[in-house]
Design a protein that fits this description.
Elements: H1 2-15, E1 26-29, H2 35-47, E2 52-57, H3 70-86, E3 89-93, H4 106-110, E4 117-122, E5 129-133, E6 139-144, E7 181-183, E8 186-188, H5 190-196, H6 201-207, E9 217-221
Parallel strand pairs: 1-2, 2-3, 3-9
Antiparallel strand pairs: 4-6, 5-6, 7-8
Helix pairs in contact: 2-3
């Protein structure tokens, strides 16, 4: 009897899964934020049985809505507020666009020492720290790469002239090692961003939705 009831309960759950089993798709923010459209799209997503989304900035956001600006946070707050009214959950994305850790180029703009570094094979022992020299006259040199990430405005794709400068994901020496902060069960280097991004704007990403953290805002997604 108990086994039959257990099967029935299982079938009911499969037919109508509880919220904890909802898909959590990436929802691209890739146009000028329009509150009416945002509200309509969230309602449509909810109506399709999706109870959570990852808010992901992508190329297409106009330049008068800079990442981490007041206009950006106004949009984030509106989205979280709409999700709250619908009983939906939001996962914040930690970059504009990806990979993460660069704050849309602001990390390197404020402190060039945090720019991405890498190892390259070179004919000359210059442009960085020589970590190996070979008999054929070549060298392994560790130094800045000039790397970029994908941005959120047109003309900012990786490799394009306006692409944001990428920041090193791990510091090469103790003097550059950041002090990580824990949020949402994961380690994120918010302190580094808070220290070097103008006006502590990275901290505002959490502050602006603080009342929803743990309820509607469930986590922060780190992009690699």
């Amino acid at each position: 009897m108990a086994e039959k009831e257990g099967r029935k309960e299982l079938f009911r759950a499969l037919a109508d899964p509880p919220e904890e089993f909802t898909p959590v798709p990436f929802w691209f923010l890739n146009d000028r934020p329009d509150q009416e459209k945002i509200a309509e799209q969230l309602k449509d997503i909810k109506a399709k049985g999706v109870d959570a989304i990852v808010l992901h900035p992508r190329i297409g956001i106009p330049e008068d809505v800079p990442y981490l600006s007041d206009a950006w946070f106004q949009t984030v707050r509106f989205i979280v507020k709409c999700a709250d009214a619908l009983g939906m959950k939001i996962v914040l994305y930690d970059e504009g666009m990806y990979p993460s850790g660069s704050a849309h180029g602001m990390v390197v703009a404020q402190n060039p020492d945090y720019a991405s570094k890498g190892i390259r094979l070179s004919d000359r022992p210059e442009g960085g720290e020589v970590i190996a020299a070979f008999a054929d006259g070549t060298y392994l040199v560790y130094g800045f790469t000039g790397g970029t990430i994908r941005g959120i405005h047109f003309g900012e794709d990786d490799g394009e002239a306006g692409a944001p400068k990428s920041a090193a994901r791990r510091k090469s020496r103790e003097r550059l090692r950041p002090s990580p902060a824990r949020f949402g069960g994961h380690i994120y280097d918010f302190r580094r961003l808070v220290e070097i991004v103008a006006d502590n704007q990275a901290a505002l990403h959490i502050y602006n939705v603080l009342g929803y953290v743990g309820a509607q805002v469930r986590d922060a997604f780190e992009g690699f």
